[in-house]
Amino acid sequence: MTMPFDALNDVSDEALLISFGNGDREAARALTMRLTPKVLGYSARLLKDRAEAEDVAQEAMLRLWKIAPDWRQGEAQVSTWLYRVVTNLCTDRLRKKRGKGLDEIAEPEDERPSQDAVLMQRQRVDALQVALDSLPDRQREAVVLRHIEGLGNPEIAEVLDISVEAVESLTARGKRALAKALASQREILGFENDGS
Amino acid sequence: MSLDALFKEVRDATPLPSGDLMARVLADAEGVIATREAEEVARINALRPKQRHPVVAAMVAALGGWRAVAGLATAGVAGLAIGLGAPMTVTTLATGSYADSAASYETTSYSATTYATGESGNALDDLVPSFYDLASEG
Questions:
Q1: Under a CB-based contact definition with an 8 Å cutoff, are residues A8 and A37 in contact?
Q2: A159 & A119 share domain
Q3: Cβ contacts (< 8 Å) between A61 and chain B: which residues?
Q4: Cβ contact (<8 Å) for A194 and B3?
């Protein structure tokens, strides 16, 4: 069965995946448009290298294509499954890097304050990324999933394969660590520790 | 600026996938579909009976299909059995010498006396030499 592309917006990820499993190329297009940005965004937050993040995104999507015929309906959300795959792929890559002693935290390219709002925003985003990179893996994954990807705690628990209480603990500790890491740049970034 | 506001800025600045990445992802999807279709075709072909050679198929069709070929085969086997079981009879019939012996057969072969004493040369086992062998086996 092939569905017209413009009629796929209201179709769930799972229905599209099953349709793809039956050979529907339009479903593949719709899923690519819908899920690749999410997957890339998440992998880019976990990895510092953009090219590497793209490789992870491609690999995660390839695994999705391969599992499509065997997908068990109702067991998990497609996006949750993908976040889990990306988490594992990124963890593997980060471990390999650490094994080679390459886990150096990148500094922002330009730390000079700028009056230009765009540059300021860019600096803030870079600074947060650096601070995120300094967190332990699990804390970083939980904070990114909760506060950047916008997932709920139960879904994060499913992605990371831990309890909801553990997720709450990780995100709370992660936020505290971030606030502490960014405190030194408070004046440059206009950042305030709101104590949350 | 609060940390939550900073998160929002980061969300808004999330990198978009390049056209090249989207093309690679779609190419992977196409490759997976193509592989799966090829495997499906191979699986169906493996289940299907093997196609006969076209020459054999043409010969069978010329002879009238598999039913006709089966009839021919049966007749052939029957002929072979008769030839092996009663070679003298076949020889007699084939050479036409049956007519010469028919006269004496007429006069003597059905005589109960001669049949009993086995004096006639045209007894049943003359026509079907292996008759008694078959009878004793059966």
A1: no
A2: yes
A3: 25, 28-29
A4: yes
The pLDDT tens digits of the residues spanning A90-140 come to: 999 988 877 654 344 444 444 444 446 667 777 788 888 888 888 999 999
Enumerate the residues of chain B whose CB falls inside 8 A of the CB of residue A150: 11
d(CA B32, CA B36): 6
Among A63, A80, A104, the domain-final residue is A104
A68 contacts on B by Cβ (under 8 Å): 32
| 3-state SS, residue A70 | helix
Residue keyed to tokens 């831990």: A162
Same domain, A92 and A182: no
| Averaged pLDDT for residues A154-171 | 94
Q: Are residues A80 and A15 in the same domain?
A: yes
Confidence of residue A29 (pLDDT cuts 50, 70, 90): very high
Mean pLDDT confidence for B113-121: 48
The residue range of the domain holding A84 is 1-104
